[in-house]
């Protein structure tokens, strides 16, 4: 996993044996164990790392008015009960524009207003709720809807 993993050497003396993974990948999910030996004492701890991912199809850049699919997946083992999508903090209802299909959100005609923060929230049969955020960027024009712009003579336009 090198060079994505690190241990804070300065924190070891105070008993902090944290492992930092940056960036986390889907294949990093699983059980991690730390063993610490000090004189004749051996301590161990186990931590399970779950990973949630959002993927974009087609990959970036997203072009305005071209359909896209945001997929959300997690390494959690329980049965998925519910999936919700939020755009800039607001729940996205299913409509003609936004269709939710098997863990994915389809945006049929993305507009510049669809850019921003998209959060996928998964709820499982064991009542575990997991979420992650994806920042969507869209290439297009964010100007007036009317292609005619009037400006006063002598002013800037």
TrEMBL record:
- What is the protein name stated in its UniProt record? Lymphocyte activation gene 3 protein
Q: Which residues form a coiled coil?
A: none
Q: Can you list the GO cellular component terms from the UniProt entry?
A: external side of plasma membrane; extracellular region; membrane raft
Return the similarity comment. Belongs to the LAG3 family.
* Principal location class: membrane
Query: Keywords of this protein's UniProt record, alphabetized?
Result: Adaptive immunity, Cell membrane, Disulfide bond, Glycoprotein, Immunity, Immunoglobulin domain, Membrane, Repeat, Secreted, Signal, Transmembrane, Transmembrane helix
Query: Is Signal tagged as a keyword?
Result: yes
Q: Where in the cell is it found?
A: Cell membrane; Secreted
- What's the stated role of this polypeptide? May function as a ligand for MHC class II (MHC-II) on antigen-presenting cells (APC), promoting APC activation/maturation and driving Th1 immune response. Lymphocyte activation gene 3 protein: Inhibitory receptor on antigen activated T-cells. Delivers inhibitory signals upon binding to ligands, such as FGL1. FGL1 constitutes a major ligand of LAG3 and is responsible for LAG3 T-cell inhibitory function. Following TCR engagement, LAG3 associates with CD3-TCR in the immunological synapse and directly inhibits T-cell activation. May inhibit antigen-specific T-cell activation in synergy with PDCD1/PD-1, possibly by acting as a coreceptor for PDCD1/PD-1.
Superkingdom to which the source organism belongs = Eukaryota
């Amino acid at each position: 996993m090198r060079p994505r993993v690190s241990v804070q050497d300065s924190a070891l003396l105070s008993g902090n044996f944290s492992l930092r993974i940056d960036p986390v990948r889907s294949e990093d999910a699983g059980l991690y164990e730390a063993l610490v030996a000090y004189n004749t004492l051996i301590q161990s701890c186990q931590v399970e790392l779950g990973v949630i991912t959002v993927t974009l199809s087609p990959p970036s850049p997203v072009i305005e008015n071209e359909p896209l699919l945001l997929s959300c997946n997690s390494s959690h083992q329980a049965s998925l009960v519910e999936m919700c999508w939020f755009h800039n903090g607001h729940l996205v209802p299913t409509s003609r524009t936004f269709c939710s299909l098997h863990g994915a959100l389809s945006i049929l005609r993305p507009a510049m207003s669809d850019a921003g923060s998209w959060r996928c929230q998964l709820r499982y049969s064991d009542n575990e709720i997991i979420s992650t955020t994806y920042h969507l960027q869209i290439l297009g024009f964010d100007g007036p809807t009317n292609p005619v712009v009037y400006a006063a003579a002598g002013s800037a336009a």
